[in-house]
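Blinded run. Sample ID left blank on purpose so nobody reads anything into the name before looking at the predicted structure. Input follows.
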Amino acid sequence: MKECNQCGKCCIKYGDGDLSATKEEIDLWEIFNPEIFKFVKDNKIWFDPESGLSLKGCPFLEIAPKINSFAPNKYTCSIYLNRPEDCRHYPSLIPEMIRDECEMIEVTDIQKPKQAQIKLDFLMQDSRPPGFS
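Blinded prediction complete.
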């Protein structure tokens, strides 16, 4: 399994309404991160603060500056330390990564998914809550 190359596929795919945030996250944003909370409507994320309409993508996904004009786009999250749990826990399963065409997956991961899952669980251990499986 490769390191994440910041291709943004996961954020682009799930940033258009397939994400949720916990009530606790939303409550904390309201108090400590009003710049995030303004994109919440009826305890759901990501909505345009002015129109109230659902956004087609995460408002905090940004394209990183390119090293040169031929380099592929790399994406960053401007709220990385305060991102929703859904984002922190992704990816969680090898089949999910394959389905989403995650660029971390290698041929050996597809051939040996159990070993790949063990490696993924190790890589993601700091992003997941205790007892996550």
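Unblinding after everyone has recorded impressions. The mean pLDDT is 92.
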